[in-house]
Design goal:
By secondary structure, the protein is an alpha+beta fold. The chain has 2 domains: 154 residues, no CATH class; 40 residues. Helices cover 52% and strands 18% of the residues. It is built from 7 helices and 6 strands; from the N terminus they run H-E-E-E-H-E-H-H-E-H-H-E-H. Strands 1, 2, 3, 4, 5 and 6 form a 6-stranded antiparallel sheet that branches. The two termini are 36 Å apart. The relative contact order is 0.21.
């Protein structure tokens, strides 16, 4: 592994991602929800006040800390242009084919001049715990006994599941609370979390990001 890659990993507190759960190097757990957005400007004054009130009540009801992350990225228009080009090739009507080509050129020119941004909203749910890092114990390192290692691994797995059940309860609280004022949410899986962190640490990689199903 390159030296600069090793140095970069030292600043990332993540040990691994297991079953959609982030395990930190200090043993803490994190779950990530992607949430939909609400356009308050399209609501009446009373609806705006009601939504804000629900959100305030939701935050005040939590007995654990949480983090709301807003990620802005440049919208990748390339897949849309490719789909239009595919339709243009299949089009048999000459006039529509010309109009489609002109539309593609307009979109391509417009997006080159103007950065169209897309926003993603995430809720990070924590659960602090001890002893789930999966590191070898002092006895394991000295004795190197296979049964001892298997026993330790079983205890680590059992501890992880126990702590995960506590985290799942918090996830349900957050999801239900958001749903009360019209915000849909979905927990990210392992591959989605890895993709999210990759794009976070590689901002030059243009992408649309993670979306709700």
């Amino acid at each position: 592994m390159p030296l600069n890659a090793q140095r970069s990993q030292e600043f990332v507190p993540i040990k691994e991602v297991r079953d959609g759960i982030i395990i930190l190097k200090d043993g803490g757990l994190r779950a990530v929800l992607v949430a939909s957005s609400i356009n308050l400007s399209l609501k009446s004054t009373d609806e705006q006040k009601a939504t804000i009130g629900e959100f305030q009540s939701f935050l005040n009801s939590l007995d654990f800390s949480t983090q709301i992350v807003v990620q802005s990225r440049r919208l990748d228009i390339r897949p849309y242009l490719l789909s239009l080009e595919g339709r243009m090739k299949e089009q048999t009507e000459p006039l529509i084919k010309i109009q489609t080509k002109e539309y593609i050129e307009f979109i391509r020119s417009f997006t080159e001049e103007v950065n169209i941004m897309t926003k993603s909203f995430f809720v990070v749910i924590p659960y602090s715990s001890e002893g789930i890092s999966g590191k070898e114990s002092f006895i394991e390192k000295i004795v190197g006994n296979k049964k001892e290692r298997q026993s330790t691994k079983s205890k680590v797995d059992a501890n992880f599941e126990e702590k995960r059940s506590q985290l799942d309860q918090r996830i349900s609280v957050i999801a239900d609370g958001l749903n009360r004022f019209g915000v849909r949410s979905s927990q990210l899986g392992t591959e989605e979390i890895i993709e999210l962190f990759y794009k976070t640490f590689n901002p030059g990689d243009i992408s649309q990001g993670v979306k709700l199903e």
